[in-house]
Amino acid sequence: MFLHYSRSTLLIVISLICFVSCKNNSAGQKSSISGEGILEEVKYANGFSIVYHPSYTQVTVYNPWKKGEIYKTYYLVKGESQEVPQDGIRIRIPIESMIANSSTYLGFLDLLKETEKITGICNSDYIYNRNVLTNIDKGFTKDVGDSYNLDIEQIILLNPDIVMTSAYEGIDENSRRMKQIGIPVVYNIEWQEADLLGRAEWIKFIGAFFDKSALSDSIFSDIEKRYMEVKNNMIDVETCPTILSGQDYRGTWSMPAGRSYSAQLFREAKGCYYYDNDSTHEGSIPNTIEEALIHFSDADIWIGVQAHSLKELASLNSKYTLFKAFQNKNVFSYNNRVTSKGGNDYWETGIARPDLLLCDMIKILHPEALPAYELTFTKQLTTD
Question: Are the C-beta atoms of residues 125 and 187 closer than 8 Å to each other?
Fold first, then answer.
């Protein structure tokens, strides 16, 4: 049976097909058509969406504190003349200079080969990335102060295309000041994602501002593939070593909640964790050291301490020596890749590469499962 179309209808259909084809070639495989645009496939992250329109890309950041509400919308354009809706911020791409308000963006920027675009960075002493440190030493990248107290005069001199910063539930004085001087503020809230792959998927968000959607899609697909392969290899593992996480800080021992990314990591590496069945919290659960001893004194593995040796850990609190993991020297820190000043790659590459985080955790809990793998971010504490 033949369907009859008018000439105008055929033109619309042909135009739509061409538009979809062009977008798929330039920005990777997309999931569906949304209105007159093409929706980027976002499989794990909840905090953003990307829609490719004929003359601009719409990037939306959602409010993690008020579900369903939009926090900010950005319209990315490649020229000066494109018209965009008035309910967001217009940004010309690809951006050529940026200020990074958090080191957690550096792993993504490194994968995208865009660290050279960072002209300003906060808290430069706590940076690990070698490219960024080299640019700081050369004076190309400037320290713009603490992330909560930016050096506005320095930022004005740098005149970046964007300032990428985190979003907060309360009033953000830094963002208010950026808006006053006319510098676009781009909110990146990957830290609110409870899923490990969800955090890593923010590479698509960052890639959009550099007009590298195809590359960011490809990078994430590779990371996802490696993560799932390692995870699936653990399906038949029956042993489940018990885990203790973190340490006391000023009277409070914050344990990962059951819906947190750390608990997910323990679970998928086939570790048993006391708060794994907690289904109401995504952040952390406060404990005292006495409560930790009640629930975790017999834990097989202790992960995520700040000390650099067992001796140093014992000197912080003698009660640490009461844990079985301490006595058996099964204590690990995230300090395998650090600088002398305190830069730590766990907070940079580790955010963008959950596949490596999972491999580390499996190597600790089930070393026989990855015999040839060497720890990337974690390090076993020695006596001295």
Answer: no
Report the alpha-carbon distance of residue 140 to residue 116 in Å, rounded: 9
**∠ at Cα 220 (203, 27), nearest 5°?**
75
- Say how far apart CA 231 and CA 228 lie, in whole Å: 5
Number of Cα atoms under 13 Å in the Cβ half of residue 115: 21
Query: Which runs of consecutive H residues, i.e. helices, occur in the chain?
Result: 7-27, 106-111, 130-138, 152-158, 173-180, 196-200, 203-209, 213-232, 261-268, 289-296, 310-316, 324-327, 349-352, 354-365
Q: 62 has which bridge partners?
A: 70
Closest by CA position to 91, among listed 167, 216, 205: 205
Residues 185-217: tens digit of each pLDDT: 999 999 999 899 999 999 999 999 999 999 999
CA 178 to chain centre: 23
Q: At residue 315, does pLDDT exceed 60?
A: yes
pLDDT digits (tens, 9 = 90+) for 34-61: 457 899 999 999 999 999 999 999 999 9
Per-residue pLDDT averaged across 240-248, rounded?
A: 97
239: exposed, middle or buried (C-beta count within 10 Å: 0-12, 13-18, 19+)? exposed
Encoding tokens for residue 257? Answer: 């909640």
Lookup result for tokens 């005292």:
288
Percent composition of the chain: helix, strand, coil (DSSP 3-state, to 5):
40, 20, 40
Q: How far apart are CA 53 and CA 55, in angstroms?
A: 6
d(CA 295, CA 273): 10
The DSSP call for residue 286 is E
State the helix-helix crossing angle for 354-365 and 213-232, rounded to 10 degrees: 20
The yes-or-no verdict on residue 22 having pLDDT over 80 is no
pTM assigned to the model: 0.88
Residue 216's Cα: distance from chain center in Å?
Answer: 14
Confidence tier at 4 by pLDDT (50, 70, 90): very low
